[in-house]
Amino acid sequence: MVTKAERDHFQAMFRKLDADGDGVIEQVDIDQLVQEMLHRAGAGAPGTQTWRRVTGLGNRLWQELLAAVDENADRKVTAREFVAAYRRPDFLDQVAVPFELAVLDAADADNDGRISVGEWLTWQQAKGTVPTEALDEFRRIDADGDGYLTREECAQHIKQTYTT
């Protein structure tokens, strides 16, 4: 049984992926979200290695989402189907977390292998997050308090976001 808090959490995530707001996720929604995030994060021009990697992972996210939950084969994912996919540990570990980390890597503007507050805010703005919420989230994720986020800190946070 899904609690109200879980339902609200998943509905918020679903709305972010439903780019056109029509109540279902289709490939065009994922494509639009990925391209917009890459553009806003300053990930370079289409065709660059980073752009191709994140776009490829976005395509994989879509294909795995369909394979996991599109029971009626209409190539659309409803909110109920979305929750079912994201509650599966294998989907999280093999699809959702790698996709999120690839987008995060694209936001690492200076390629130092960690995310600064400025890089985080740019990435979060690209996702449509309010700056004050993004700063609060950064502080929660930065487990060692050094002012930077590592891949390990981010991966742990992503898993917690989808499972708590």
Describe the fold and architecture:
By secondary structure, the chain is mostly helical. It has a single domain (4-163), classed as Recoverin, domain 1 (Orthogonal Bundle), CATH 1.10.238.10. The chain contains eight helices and two strands, in the order H-H-H-H-H-E-H-H-E-H. It has a two-stranded antiparallel sheet with strand order 1-2. Helix 2 (27-40) runs antiparallel to helix 6 (117-126). The mean pLDDT is 83.
The count of strands amounts to 2
What's the arrangement of strands in the largest beta sheet?
1-2
**Number of domain modules:** 1
Query: Could you give me the name of the CATH homologous superfamily?
Result: EF-hand
CATH fold type = Recoverin, domain 1
Any idea what the shape is? globular
Task: Pick out the low-confidence regions.
Answer: none
